Amino acid sequence: MILRMLARAARLAARIALAWVAIGSTLTASNPAAALAPDLPRENAVPGGVKILRLDVTGSALPYVDAEGHRALVLQDSPTWVAVFGIPLAAPLGLHQVVVHAANGRQEIEYSVGNKQYASQSLKVAPRQVDLSAADLARFKAERIRIDQALSHWTELAPESLRMSQPVPGPRSSSFGSRRIFNGQSRNPHSGMDIAAPSGTPVLTPIAGTVVDTGEYFFDGNTVFVDHGRGLISMYCHLSAIDVKPGQRIAAGSRIGAVGMTGRATGPHLHWGLVLNRAWVDPELFLP
């Protein structure tokens, strides 16, 4: 009698387990990014935010997704694909579209960009860092070309994750998107997150990548660019030291430099910027 009861209980448990497997399969099919969710950033479809789209594409071939003229990051969640792309800070509000090129043809997907009000921040810096001399302006223009080249870097290798930790511990001293006013003059919005930390604090890359370039720039000071794959580039500025070289492959948690206040900085801090498909995006969306 006891053996028969145990056998029935075992069969019932097996049926329940199979039912949960079926439910899980159904949920994954209805939400292709479900399995990817722990590794994706938080979606926020605003200027400077991130949009996530589930594509009606299957197969092993990597789809090409055009977002505002730039190739978007695409990840496979077998059997389908998910596009994760940045929305430029200057993007107008309203309807936008991406164009998907895949083995099964071309398709256009519309999405909406909503409004977000970013704060303003007034800063006092050396006058020469606001009203540039002819020599400094020429230097800045040359540096901008080099920076654009680093930010346009593309590799086929997918990022190991789209969830990150802060490169340095510390409070945020300035948020992404802030309207910057230097010495009373309005300038471009803040394109990264500033994290206050003592000079010399190690700066660690949150996820693996390849160092695209390093250099000393007029505004950004000592800077490192890291390519994490498929259009995701990170930028670390105002460093007191640079500990990596271009072309170097680095693992998550590797030291790339140390906090400083080189370039245009009012105190020691790390400026951490993230670019997706050539658009500056809010690093906060990538934090746990």
CATH fold-level topology of the largest domain: Glucose Permease (Domain IIA)
CATH class of the largest domain: Mainly Beta
The biggest beta sheet reads: 8 strands, antiparallel
At CATH level 2, the architecture of the largest domain is Distorted Sandwich
Order of helices and strands: HEEEEEEEEHEEEEEEEEEEEEE
Number of structurally distinct domains: 3
Class per helix and strand makeup: alpha+beta
Radius of gyration: 23 Å
The outline comes out as globular
Unreliable segments of 5+ consecutive residues: 1-7, 9-34
Distance between the termini: 53 Å
Work out the helix count. Answer: 2
- Bin the strand percentage: 35-45%
CATH-level-4 superfamily name of the largest domain = Glucose Permease (Domain IIA)
Determine the mean pLDDT. Answer: 84
DSSP, total strands = 21
Which helices and strands, and how do they pair?
Layout: H1 2-30, E1 50-58, E2 64-67, E3 70-71, E4 73-77, E5 80-86, E6 94-102, E7 105-113, E8 120-123, H2 134-151, E9 172-174, E10 179-182, E11 185-189, E12 193-196, E13 202-204, E14 209-217, E15 221-229, E16 232-239, E17 241-242, E18 249-250, E19 255-258, E20 269-276, E21 279-281
Parallel strand pairs: 8-10
Antiparallel strand pairs: 1-5, 2-3, 2-6, 4-5, 6-7, 9-12, 10-11, 12-20, 13-19, 14-15, 14-18, 15-16, 16-20, 17-19, 20-21
Question: How does this structure look, described?
Answer:
With 288 residues, the chain is of the alpha+beta class. The chain folds into three domains: 1-30; 37-113, Immunoglobulin-like (Sandwich), CATH 2.60.40.1590; 120-286, Distorted Sandwich (Glucose Permease (Domain IIA)), CATH 2.70.70.10. The chain has two helices and 21 strands. It has helices at residues 2-30, 134-151; strands at residues 50-58, 64-67, 70-71, 73-77, 80-86, 94-102, 105-113, 120-123, 172-174, 179-182, 185-189, 193-196, 202-204, 209-217, 221-229, 232-239, 241-242, 249-250, 255-258, 269-276, 279-281. The strands form five sheets. Strands 9, 12, 14, 15, 16, 18, 20 and 21 form an eight-stranded antiparallel beta sheet that branches. A four-stranded antiparallel beta sheet has the order 3-2-6-7, with no helix packed on it. It is globular.
